[in-house]
Every structure is written in C-alpha cells, then in structure tokens.
Amino acid sequence: MVTDDNRDEILAALDYGDLKVTGRLVDASNATLFGEITVGENSFNCIYKPVTGERPLWDFPDGTLANREYAAYLISEAMQLNCVPPTLLREGPFGFGMVQLWIDIDEEIDLAELYRKDLPGLRNLALFDVVINNTDRKIGHLLPTVDGHIYGCDHGVTFHSEDKLRTVLWQWEQFSLLDSEIKTLQILETELSSQTGVLIQQLITQEEFDALKVRVQRLREAKVFPSPSPDWPAVPWPPF
Ligand SMILES: Nc1ncnc2c1ncn2[C@@H]1O[C@H](COP(=O)(O)OP(=O)(O)O)[C@@H](O)[C@H]1O
Ligand SMILES: [Mg+2]
Q1: Which atom of ligand 1 has the smallest separation from the CA of 102?
Q2: What is the C-alpha to C-alpha distance for residues 221 and 66, in angstroms, rounded to an integer?
Q3: What are the pLDDT digits (tens) for 53-74?
C-alpha cells in the first residue's frame, strides 16, 4: 500500500525509472498500456497511457485524458484520501503520457458484491467522484487491495464544466456528509487556492477549474451526497 513514508519514493521511481511497455489491455478503448518501471535492481508494474493513443471525444474536446488523470490524482492527494494510485506525467516509449502505479488487487473480492457495500473506502471514492465530476465510475474501476484499501482508476473523463456525474456508487444519495468529509472539502478549498490550484490550472481549462471550485463549494453548503441527475444517464453502461 502507498503510505506517507513510501509515496515520494514511488513517485520518484515512476518519474525517472526506465519505462518499458510489456503489454496492452485489450478491452481498453484508448491505448492503455501495461508497463514495467525499473530503477536499479528494483522493478514494478505500471499503467502507461500515451497522449498519442487518445481517441477524440465529442464531449471532451479540450485538454487530454492524461492531464485529467493527473489532475484527479492531485485532487485525491489534496483531499488526503489516497484513493488514486501514484500518478504522473512523463515521456515514455510512445511519447508523453500518464503513468500510474499498478495496484495488485485482492482477487478473492467479488467486485459485483463490493461496489454496493457501505465501506469508508468506497464512500471516499464517491465523494471524490462528485468533486472531480467523474463520468465513468464503473465497477471495474475499483481496485481493492488485500490490506483493505480501495483505489480507483480511469479518471480521464472528469472535470467537465457541466454536471455529468455517472457512477455505480449511489448508495449514499442524500446522506449527510460526515464532519470529516466537510473538513476534507475545506482542506481541498484551501489547496485549490494555493499550490494544487496552480498545478491543476495547467491541466484543465479555466472553465473546468472554475466549475471544480463551484462543485466543492456547493457540496460544502449542501452537506449531503447528491442524487442521480434525471437529465443524464447516471449509471455507466455497461456497469463493468
Ligand atoms: N493503476 C492500476 N492498477 C491496477 N489495475 C488497473 C490500474 N489502472 C487500470 N487498471 C485495470 O485496467 C483496466 C483498464 O484500465 P482503464 O484505466 O480503465 O483504461 P481505459 O481508459 O482504456 O478504460 C481497469 O478497468 C482496471 O481493471
Ligand atoms: Mg476503463
């Protein structure tokens, strides 16, 4: 698991380690490559999504999937949720792109059962998804580990300036936010006005950045998880 003690080391290795592509995830819609990063004697697996492999999306004409994946990681860090595996942008064998630590999931866990549960790790992801306006939280984008942590992946279609939340995690609809969740949003607001905000503004459009701040403020004022929108398919299809 990624902790405060090993995060910097992992990020440094992702950044300067030797990146080799070892496979391709065949069911992926864009060029989602499986890679191996080597630093000295050590190596670990990663996901590598080169920008050149991105297909144009009519509803996301600006920016890149890779930038939004990185911005999503920065939000997870700013909210202190640790719900996105270490992610960064770098050069690779197929050019500039997003690189993310591969998480070995607990194969014993049935994701079709997991996603409906009321678990703190899932609830964190649900809150995170409202903030980043995730349009693609599928069951297969949940990564539970053997030590009980739950990461999420595939955050390329996020941060749209219009509300497009589409997720399988609706079990907290209209539930009151916990004090700790409100505190998390306050921390995020402060971060968006400082260092994290500066970084994120380089990754998404100004309109998207303004909408992000509005979503955080709205959530903090409403103090409840939102309900599915009647104007938009609020659950991804297929859900996996
Ligand atoms: N960092 C990761 N660690 C472990 N598994 C991952 C990671 N990123 C992606 N995956 C797995 O690979 C699948 C495809 O990756 P995804 O990011 O969803 O690609 P695409 O954008 O093409 O849908 C995911 O559904 C998940 O099962
Ligand atoms: Mg996917």
Answers
A1: 3
A2: 31
A3: 898 898 999 999 999 999 999 9
